[in-house]
Amino acid sequence: MPRVNWRRALTSWDGVMIVAVVLVAVIGALAIDGVASPRFWRFVTLEIIPILLIALPMTLIVITGEIDLSVASILGLTCSVMGQLWFLGVTSLPLLILASLGLGAVLGAVNGTFITVFGLPSLAVTIGTLALFRGLGYVVLGNRAISDYPIAWNTNIIAPIPGLTIPWFIIVVAVLAVLFGIVLHATPIGRGLYAMGNSVDAATFTGINVARTKFWLFVLCGATSSLAGVFWTLRFASARADNGSGLELSVVAAVLFGGVSIFGGRGGLIGVIAAVVLLGVFRNALQLASVPANTLTVVTGALLIASVVGPNLVGMARQRLRRRRPVASSVASRT
Predict the structure, then answer these.
(1) What is residue 318's predicted lDDT score, i.e. its pLDDT?
(2) DSSP states of 191-234 as a string?
């Protein structure tokens, strides 16, 4: 049985993020009333479910050197279409879920086509579709809110695991996380994603179909964003075109803060999952402490900037240390 290098594991970014989650939870429980309660962790779980769902495929996309900023708009458009279908008489929940997932896959395919077929940068494309899909949501539903769903739907989606307060839907997210983790870290597909992030030309030379792989990643991201939209609609018992507005900021912040390089080729799911939990605990703890919502947005933005700038500063510091070591050794040898 292979030995675990605990020192290396704890000093890795994934280990740092896990330790940070524990520290924030312990400090929050000691300093803020209510953080240690089961009710608090129930609300944290409910909040992070849609973020974590979208962060799973987003991690794979960013590792390849791309990004998808339209995910929250796909969520919102899914909510609008789901509400409109219900308003028109489609009352089968399985049918609504299938239609929503199909819609998300189509929207993801639109992004993937522009990026892989026409060769446009993903940042520019998804900024455009961010506005386009959100606008289509208002075209479909307007400013209405569809909220007359069966009570059983709304209560079942947030029903707790027997004996616990945590909602059962987290099990679905956990299964998806395991599947994404296996694909990324234990299959040739995952190794190909890292290769694409490091060098598209080298990945192509080794036989990887870069365009096709990226296309299906965007399709997968669209479908997962729509699944988050289904959860969002049923949790809040309300389908609105503005559902999930600004959620893309939380997703990208979690992915980058979890150790995934914005330039691609580096990172993993464990750090991202830990970052999602960390940000969820942090935000909910600050809300219990009556910190204004605007301050929470500022903190999220600051963490996003830090997650991009921080690794670059660390890399520059390491390069300087490497340059100084040969000089120091040569001086020592002369003396």
Answers:
(1) 65
(2) HHHHHHHH-HHHHHHTT--HHHHHHHHHHHHHHHHHHHHHHHHH
